[in-house]
Amino acid sequence: MRESKLWALHLFSGAALVVLLGVHMVVQHYPTILSWLGWVEDDVRGFASVAARGASAGWSVIYVLLLGFALYHGLYGLRRILHEIWYSPAATRAVDAAVVVVGLVVFVYGLVAVFQAIPLGGAS
Amino acid sequence: MARPSSIEPRAPQGLRPRRLPNRLGVRGWVHAGRYPIERYLFTLHRLSGIGLVLYLPLHVWVTSRRLQGPEVWERTMATLSHPIFVVGELLILAAFVYHALNGLRLILGHLGYTLGKPAEPVYPYPVALRRQRPLTVAMMILAAAFIAVGIWEILVG
Amino acid sequence: MARVLERRATGERATGAPAGAGGPIEAGAVVTLRVARFDPERDVAMRWQTYQVPYTPGMTVLDALIAVKERQDGSLAFRSSCRMGVCGSCGMLVNGKPRLTCQTQVSELGTHLEVAPLPNHDVIKDLVPDLSGTFERHRKVHPYIIRPAADEAEMRAPTREFAQTPEEMERYLQFAYCLKCSLCVAACPTAATDPLFLGPQALAQAYRYIADSRDAGWEVRADAVDGVHGVFSCHLAGACSEACPKGVDPALGIQLLKRSLLTGPPHAEPAPVIGPRPVVPEDPARPRPKAPPPTV
Hints:
Chain A is mainly alpha-helical. Chain A is 83% helix and 0% strand. Chain C: Pfam families: Fer2_3 (PF13085), Fer4_8 (PF13183).
């Protein structure tokens, strides 16, 4: 794949992350801003609240998108940095392979966690 | 009579003279010399990006602890309320806010939207990056505000 | 002088220079030069040597180095040619910033100067950097007008001119002022670690030709720059544009090059050659103009 395609996806995922992670961060860390928006939740990080979000289809979709975009964006950026330090062709191939493997492993692990969390909402 | 040292016979050299490598290396990412603010925002962007990407798998693992049930989850959250993790959380929040806002500026710049058009180089020379300097300043003020509110929310709110 | 006043107005000051640097220097003052030395036949690393030369009004950093070489140390090696900011051979790291020494007034920086060879290039001797890497990378982006194959005969034996409006010229003119002095490469943070990175000089020149309305070489150049060590290793730190002594603004050229790689060439068709050259037929009825009468 041409570098420009990968790079365009890096830019797109970056822009998408500003929105998605922005929502994620506001929900997790800015309760005052949330209350201005009319959303009051006593304990966002309590188990009941976490399980409820994990069970909702909307949040599950957001989590999967977040995971995919964040992994792509982060690992592409990391790959660029590593390519600038280890620039030999062999090192370039090794870094590319490592980045793909790490990305896939973390993505599958996260995906399993998101789907296994769906029944938790009913249990609590 | 001793010959002056400057005309002492020298060790034979190959045809191609020896070069002294003078690349700045990773030091050159950080230490730059007297350049405008964007040069240092680049360093900070890279640093915050490395921090965030290393945090991501950790975060996926920690949040997947909810699968183990309420007891394990509450225990994990209790561990994370330790001051060390709170400081770490603040650093990640600051890194994200900075990386996001500076990243928006960079996306616009990379695509050439905020840099203007080529101009005839008449002294004092036009520098495109200076045309987006107001955006740089606005983004940094915004980042500082979000980080300050975030710190307040985590420590006080 | 305008340059000095401009620098003074923007508050530019030398790093580590004493207070009051950048102001007028009295005639008779002494300029202290801390110069990096490297002799490939003896040294394994750079070493520093200090010289003192009397200041003369209008003295450039290059003038100071020439004064050292003429009167104090003939072994000091540096490269210079035109002394007027056109040849691009006297680039050095002066007080922490890459500059053309022939264009840098000592009065801009104060009486304490630190002169080192350009970073991110191998050192041949003392202050002489090896610029061959920059020239090689420059060649990689096909730095010349490429015409469609149909124009081959015209390119071999030109008969006509190419059409280009002033607006079309302005799209690339700024980038055409490049001297290949490599100051931008010395300033670039990516070039600090990655010797395969094409670098601001070559990438800006790639855009200079892509933006030229006469050019049809977008695809060839896109192939040359669209790689792991190509245009996307630029992270818009902007140091290259600040270092450029000619206002070429490589950072702008590189970002426009990136946009062009995503959205396609800036012009679909290269500008045609101007239509048939006007032929004035010989008219036998019309008398040829007579030679003016000889004056005494």
